[in-house]
Amino acid sequence: MTAAFLVVGAYLPGAVPFGLLIGLARGVDIRKAGSGNIGATNAGRVLGRKWGFLCLALDILKGLIPTLIARGALLHPPLTSEIMLQWVLVGAATVIGHTFPVYLGFRGGKGVATTIGAGLGFWPALSIPMIVALLVYGAVRYTSGVVSAGSIALAVALPIAFFAYCAIVPDAPLGVYWPLGAIAVALGLLIIIRHRSNIARLIRGEELAVKASEDE
What we know:
Layout: H1 2-14, H2 18-25, H3 40-47, H4 49-74, H5 81-99, H6 112-121, H7 127-144, H8 147-168, H9 174-194, H10 196-204
Helix pairs in contact: 1-4, 1-5, 2-3, 3-4, 4-5, 4-6, 5-6, 5-9, 6-7, 7-8, 8-9
């Protein structure tokens, strides 16, 4: 019951479309401007840089806070894969909420920022790999100038970094931590699927650079 309550309690705030709400508060429906996405990049493009950063912070926090709350509520020794799975479901619910928000007819953002927040909340076994993935994101975005390329690189790097972490750190046995590996793979695939139009443009050489690229 606790886990079910936490999952629902993660999905509902995860589904709050902060980019849209910030835009409406400023008299703009960002679904009808820029790329039409409700994520932070489009919010920044349409509303201005500071509002984009505010949206980014809120989207990260709505992934981070429920995951940290679930950690405190669920993770008591001895740790088992069943407990880890319950924790993972809470983090996944935040991202599903952002990507498929009930408040907007299940049409939401691409989930990158909320995935970052949830990943950072899975301390330490997934938060450290997420930091590595963020470094990869930054490097790819900086060198390519394309936000979507960085997001796709993060999606690929996250599960690789996680399995490397488990191989290196003796206190992270994969037999117990496999649910974290599963969510790293699942969220990476979700990001890639949500960026499929970007991938097609990248292949064609038509994807636009930072200021005009598809948002998260």
